[in-house]
Amino acid sequence: MDFSKFENRYKITGELIVLTALHIGSGKEEGNHDSPFMNIKLKEDKVYYIPGSSFRGYLSTKLERFLEEDNGFSLIDKETKERLNSADVKLIFGYTNLDQESSEKIKDRVAKKLGYDKVTDSIRSMAGRIHISDMKILSEVDSIKRDGIKIDRNTGATEKGAKFDYDILPSGTKFDFIMELENIEKYQMDLIALALKDIIEGDLFGGKLSRGIGKCKLEIKNVEYVDKTNLRNYIFSRKMNPMKKEEFLELKNIDLVIE
Questions:
Q1: Other C-beta atoms within 10 Å of 80: how many?
Q2: What is the tens place of the pLDDT at every residue in 137-146?
Q3: DSSP calls for 28-53
Q4: Strand, coil or helix: what is 54?
Q5: Where would I find the beta strands (DSSP E) of the chain?
Q6: Cα separations (Å) of 109 from 83, 96, 255?
Q7: Tally of CB atoms within 10 A around 221
Q8: Distance between CA atoms of 226 and 234, rounded to whole angstroms?
Q9: Distance between CA 11 and CA 52 in Å, rounded?
């Protein structure tokens, strides 16, 4: 696909619902808090959110696992009959330093999909075709503090007798979910739907999962799209066509082959 031209745009909205409890740490220690929950301060209040980059990382990791060469199975693009690999994750989520990070097989597929015989300077780095907005909290809740054992960040070992508090948000907390896709091919749509299936049914997400927290469920409410069939309505009135959620999640363009 020629990404310099407009082909399509999809917008998927819904809510991420916490089923057990959730911790998304800021990575910064504050007093007796080890990596408090991500938040911004508005006046006197803390407003909690999940960075869109965290959910992007969750999805890309899911796809990387499905496309591992040692899985004993392959995912195939039904239209081209080609085997998919980690290059297809990079083509959706973007990448940097392709030469340094990737095998020849991955580089060859990236180049081929972008219409080149080999990797050139113009495709060594590329922005992704997926954007996930920071997920604002929808529920009116306060964070809950839990006790833990403090870790020395230099040695990785526990500090004797030292404790810390960490923030969790309780079961039932909801976050706003907005994902947008641009110039996505049919088989890539299937890959995104495949990556979403676990968390739609309920999956572990976030930090401190070994402590029995992090079970979340994504509830998709609306799927909308624009392509060349309804481009006029979109350009002049910003109207997108609705798509049934079931149609979006149906894997019609990829196949699985047991090896």
A1: 11
A2: 999 887 776 6
A3: --BTTBSSPBPEEEETTEEEEEE-HH
A4: helix
A5: 8-18, 21-22, 39-42, 45-50, 73-77, 130-132, 135-136, 144-151, 158-170, 174-182, 203-204, 215-227, 241-243, 254-258
A6: 10, 16, 18
A7: 10
A8: 7
A9: 15
Please write the tens of the pLDDT for every residue from 202-214. 999 988 888 888 9
Select from 8, 10, 256 the least CA-distant residue to 131.
Answer: 10
Q: Number of helices and strands (H, E) in the chain? A: 7, 14
- Answer yes or no: is pLDDT of 8 > 80: yes
Calpha distance 73→49 (Å, rounded): 37
Q: Which of 35, 26, 54 is nearest to 151 (CA)?
A: 35
Give the C-alpha separation, 239 to 245, whole Å.
18
Contact in structure between 176 and 238 (CB atoms under 8 Å) = no
* Nearest C-alpha neighbor of 89 from the set 117, 63, 56: 63
Beta-bridge mates of residue 243: 223
Q: How far is CA 11 from the centre of its chain?
A: 14
Retrieve residue 238's tokens: 């910003």
| Angle (CA) 178 216 55, round 5° | 40
Phi, psi values for residue 121, rounded to 5° = -60, -35
